[in-house]
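[Automated response] Your request has been received and processed.

Submitted sequence:
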Amino acid sequence: SEWTSWGACDKTCGGGQAARQRQIVAFPAFEGASCPSELMEVKGCNTQSCVMQDCQVALWSDWGTCATSCGSGQQMRSRQVLGFRGLDGRGCDLAMGETRQCADTPKCDFADCKWGDWSDWSGCTCSCAGGQQSR
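Generated structure:
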């Protein structure tokens, strides 16, 4: 008969085996050709390592400088991916950056807008018939 489909691997990792087979449907008669000697084939499968490795990240960097010198500001820190997950490991679903309010920043010295005194009027742009002055 024809070969069957390959069967399932007997291991999910670390190297297993899968097999397929065929059967003799009719034996030879009257000096007919002999039957094939191999009725089963085996092959390797799932050769990847069974070691489960989660995503690996570096330690957090130091907090950066505050984005402002006074008042309410923010600072950031980050970390990097060192190694991605292996088979069946936990993926890199961790935060790679953090932001926080700056601590101990002094209050800003606020001042309302102040107008200066008016300057003197400029001379007229015309000696007659509707000139302009500014200050």
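Summary generated for your ticket: Residues 70 and 106 are 5 Å apart (CA to CA). The chain has a mean pLDDT of 87.
If you did not submit this request, please reply to this message.
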